[in-house]
Task: inverse folding
């Protein structure tokens, strides 16, 4: 058996508080029944290890829909070799409690890897969104976005939602999923939710739990650098290299930080830009603290 299949044994999933669905067929028939009853169905896809950022997405979903499904699936195909797939936190019991504290959801869709990849890995079928995956994280995480778009399309087909909510925290993912959803004609409304942050500005992430207290303290440089860059642009700076240098300098002020990239790109196409003319732009960072890779971003608009 492929080792990834042993990680989430179905026998662990037992409870009487929320409907936990583990098969695609049952998920589809449940969604069909909900839709037949005229209800609007929202999906919040996650990899679990839920934090306040995820819960905000869930609260938004509950506002916008009658029926909310949260999917929890640590998708092996979006982790490159050497990344943290094995170490990634799996905390289903705590996730169920967190969802209950957030007012509850209708369904947790928690399929096994065998259910999602019945012919094993790598799967025969994949969905790939060209070009948008060449920039930012895509340049460093080989195959990551293909893994994401493939699994998200499977989740869309299994959960049959009217709308799905994703975090702006993963801005490139959101841009790619928007494009995929339109191009594939899924007929699902995609909502991007603003980034939820710790008190010190650190964007919430399941990976923050890998940080020691000093790393966590220093990790505020990401949001500081992004805010500073957006401030420079707001103050009239139009040269992207100036913004990027300023971000690099702020990240470098944290002794434990190792910058992977600092970039400013077109917010829609994600293409690099050198000067800021009118439009919407995305400033984005990836920074390592030890083995832990953190990402953050901000968008800003330049009026014509
Ligand atoms: P993940 O479990 O990391 O795959 O994230 C599941 C969803 O939650 C994705 O759409 C993320 O963008 C979103 N998300 C994660 N962290 C945050 C955050 N701090 N603020 C807003 N959305 C988030």
Result:
């Amino acid at each position: 058996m492929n080792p990834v299949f042993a990680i989430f044994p179905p026998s662990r999933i037992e409870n009487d508080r929320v409907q936990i669905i583990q098969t695609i067929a049952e998920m589809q028939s449940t969604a069909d029944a909900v839709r037949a009853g005229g209800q609007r169905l929202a999906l919040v896809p996650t990899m679990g290890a839920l934090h306040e950022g995820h819960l905000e997405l869930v609260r938004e979903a509950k506002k916008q829909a009658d029926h909310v499904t949260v999917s929890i699936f640590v998708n092996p195909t979006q982790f490159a070799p050497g990344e943290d797939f094995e170490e990634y936190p799996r905390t289903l019991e705590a996730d169920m409690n967190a969802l209950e504290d957030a007012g509850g959801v209708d369904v947790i869709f928690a399929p096994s890897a065998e259910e999602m990849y019945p012919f094993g890995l790598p799967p025969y079928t994949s969905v790939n969104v060209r070009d948008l995956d060449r920039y930012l994280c895509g340049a460093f995480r080989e195959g990551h976005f293909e893994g994401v778009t493939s699994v998200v399309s499977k989740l869309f087909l299994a959960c049959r939602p009217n709308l799905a909510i994703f975090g702006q925290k993963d801005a490139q993912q959101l841009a790619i999923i928007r494009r995929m959803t339109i191009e594939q004609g899924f007929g699902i409304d995609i909502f991007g939710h603003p980034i939820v942050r710790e008190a010190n500005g650190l964007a919430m992430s399941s990976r923050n739990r890998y940080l020691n207290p000093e790393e966590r303290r220093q990790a505020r440089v990401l949001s500081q650098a992004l805010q500073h860059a957006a401030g420079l642009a707001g103050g009239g700076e139009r040269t992207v290299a100036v913004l990027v240098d300023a971000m690099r300098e702020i990240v470098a002020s944290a002794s434990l930080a190792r910058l992977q990239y600092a970039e400013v790109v077109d917010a829609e196409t994600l293409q690099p830009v050198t000067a800021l003319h009118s439009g919407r732009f995305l400033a984005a960072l990836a920074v390592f603290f030890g083995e832990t890779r953190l990402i953050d971003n901000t968008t800003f608009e330049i009026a014509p």
Residues 1-12 have pLDDT under 50 and may be disordered. Residues 46-47, 53-54, 57, 166-167, 169-170, 193, 195-196, 203-206 surround adenosine monophosphate (CB under 6 Å). The chain has nine helices and nine strands.
